[in-house]
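Morning!

This is the sequence you dropped in the shared folder:
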Amino acid sequence: MGVTSEDGRIVAGGRKGTYVRLAEGSQERHVSRTDLAQRPDDLGDPILTVAHLSDLHVCDHQSPARAEVLDRLKDPDTATAELIDQVGTYRAQELLTAQVGAAMVEAVNEISEGPVGGGPLDLAITTGDSTDNGQLNELDWYLTLLDGGRLTPDSGDMLHYEGVDGLPDERFWHPEGGAYDRPRGYGGFPLVPGLLKAMRRAIDSPGLEVPWLAVNGNHDALLQGTIPTNETIAEVAVGALKAIAMPEHWTDEAKVKLVAGLVAGDPEALTMLSELDPHEVTPDKRRRQTTLQEFIDYHVHDEAKPAGHGFSAGGKPYYRHDANDQVTFVVLDTVNPAGGFDGSLDEEQLEWLDAELASTDRDERLTVIASHHDVASLVNDMNGAGGGRRVLGDEIEQTVSRHESAVLWLNGHTHRTAVRPRGSWWEVTAPSLVDWPQQGRVVELLSDGDVLTIATTMLDHAGPARWSGAIDDVRHLASLSRELSANDWQGPKVPLDEHPGGGSAKDRNVMLHLLDPRA
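The structure's back. Tokens below.
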């Protein structure tokens, strides 16, 4: 499909019962946002063009360290649905995350120039949650997708599928039939014979043709994006028992307590997890949980462009990268190591951020901040045993706003397409590649000398808009994944064009104007 301003936006294209099919809609023109400055007569010259991806969630769908059973507590026909904000431990399309990643690499490589300014694509950035569960095999798959090479998105028994979609549990989608399941029964989900074999086939990824930067996300660092690794979790990840059901004697109150406890990092919740009924799977040492330092160091290799994809071996999970002679990236690590899916900074990183922005102020450079969490999600003040003070969004925003060089903050986390003015700079949030609409962005910086324009254009992966029914290659499987994401039975009950994941017209193809601080 490519850049949506040129090829048309993917929209609902009819229904089969309750199940939405997709189609290619009309082009969506760019909207000028004049919250911070008026649009200039001439946008000026391109300074930098970037592909922004976020929340790939490359997933070992068969891992025993995943707790898909908890997601059933949010199903619309359960007594607990209204008592829990979100769970997010199972999606019908999560078995196809590697294929979506490969299709997005293909789409980025097809960008010949920025759709607004016409400048060459200079680099890409992925703003965290590149893996789903902080596992070594997921880290290897994600890096292979973006750097290039062959990967096989399979684990455990390499000859047989062992994930929840093969279990006789009616609350999970069974794409190959057999036992009744509710997604097919009341959601209209399709039968796809051969899918559980096709999704485990080897993938040859060309890798991104431009240099790319990496960012740490909560799913890259924490179990299911929430829980710090400990010895018990480490054993479960590489072991032979996968939790698939809750004890029959548990009350609804106990189930809600479990989810709330996991979000809050309560050790008692981990004890409750050990009570879940298990199913035997093939153990796999490649599923082991990685440390933060391993996540950093695995990015540092001879072929990485730029060096370490921004990271340094043995270094910090935050860094500065000068993209060219005018623009600097300041990349933050907003993951709270004490747990929880929302973010914050420690005081040392805030001081570093303040100093780097002071430096770019003096040098009259433009600064793009990048992190996993958006500003509104920087509310996690858990500090663990002996941990220092956590710095939250209001204080971080005030620090950034003191520096005239800061013009843009790129992030993800919320799985929603959003754009917000923040006083003297813009915040641009990318959607997820696992949930609807499975898009990235092309972000261009242009200046006429007085007004800086940040042009953002939505970018679809290379899967066709309408799934053909085929599963014989990466593009077709990615197309199916997008269609499944549009039919999430836990999603908002609104027409697809009003889905918050896709944002509004003022969040998608937009030109964001602000005064060029160098003027």
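Headline: The two ends are 38 Å apart (CA to CA).

More detail when I'm at my desk.
O.
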